Amino acid sequence: MRGRRAGLLALGAVLGPGLLAGLSDDDPAGITTYSILGADYGYRLLWVLALSTVALVVFHELAARMGVVTGKGLMCLVRERYGRRATQGALAALLVANLGTICAEFAGVAAGMQVLGGPSRYVTVPVAAAAVSVLVLRGSFGRVEHVLLALSAIFVAYVVSGLLAHPDWGATARGLVVPDMPFTRAAALATVATVGTTLAPWGLAFIQSYAVDKRLKVEDLRYERVDVVSGAVLTGIIGVFVVIACAATLHVHGRHIHDAADAADALRPLAGNAAQALFGVGLVGAGLLAAAVVPLSTAYSVAEALDRPADLNDGFREAPVFYGAYGMSVVLAVTLVLIPGAPLIPILFLSQALNAVLLLAILPFLRSLARDAAVMGEHRLGRAGSFATAAVIVLVAVCVLALAALNVA
């Protein structure tokens, strides 16, 4: 009993990087993508989400392991092993992907508040930006982590909304394990967006740098794997419930939507006011969580690429580049979202397809570094890990190429 209690305490101390990186993937852009997937294709493309979740486990475990073993973030390792030019290319891809995703987070907060009858985005977006910035810029590492983990509990709203929709569980099981793919441009875009929103570039950089900032040690690795797998699996479960909530209601009634706010509105006459309210609450909570976490990925990456301090326990004077990058990414995203007539729907959905494209600039670096014995020592990728990571990269490339081919056709 004493040993079990000690193990649980050790696990509790380690939890954080995997859960936050995983659950933040179920952000407003992800909820929008999963809602469209369910409304347009029913249970048919659930297998894409299942495969994406497996890929998430593979690469999040790899990134967390690299952070724990080396004590360095992704951009720091790229800079040291491949030089300035490679670092600039990888950082540029990450910054573009992150900016689109941060815009999507604030757009999702605005959409969720509108579903709940709140004020316009010109009020909710600046307030949300100020709230998450104060939390991150003024809080210690422990305080920031505790608040974000507490906020992640909001995702139970999507599980409840899925249950309220009374889905077809047999069709759900078939959709998860039986590959079925309509060969259309729209289906290819939905598939690519699902891959991009589940295995997001920002999450790979964040989980590695966050594990470093949390001061995890090699002896913590077995507990950190539990953290990573738990976060990834919960991400997939929440995504599945969003898909089946829309499949059981919107798809069977032939209702098409453009974003998660449409899904919430459409759920009300089909599954009741509670389902609509839960969808709206989940959208706001998911947006706030991810709006705090994704800029951290940018801040860590910029500071590491420039060889500057990147530590949440430091103040602005000790880490000006880190906090400056965080603040600038938030301000720029808020500015873009508040432009009158800004296309929020394309920002939410198409940014996730862009994520999948930019993954091809990030994943090979991760895999190459993880296979390097000089970097990882005895913890480097073995034969099975090398095969799994290569298979994920090929899967992402095939999805992107299929979308490109259908667009040309």
Q: Could you characterize what this model shows?
A:
The chain has 409 residues and is mainly alpha-helical. 80% of the residues lie in helices and 0% in strands.
- Cα separation of the termini: 64 Å
Low-confidence stretches: none
What is the subunit organization of this protein? single chain
Task: Output the structural class.
Answer: mainly alpha
Write down the secondary-structure element order. HHHHHHHHHHHHHHHHHH
Strand percent estimate: under 5%
* Beta strands, count: 0
Main pleated sheet: none
Radius of gyration over C-alpha positions, nearest whole angstrom: 20 Å
Q: Any idea what the shape is?
A: globular
Average predicted confidence as pLDDT: 84
**How many helices does DSSP assign?**
18
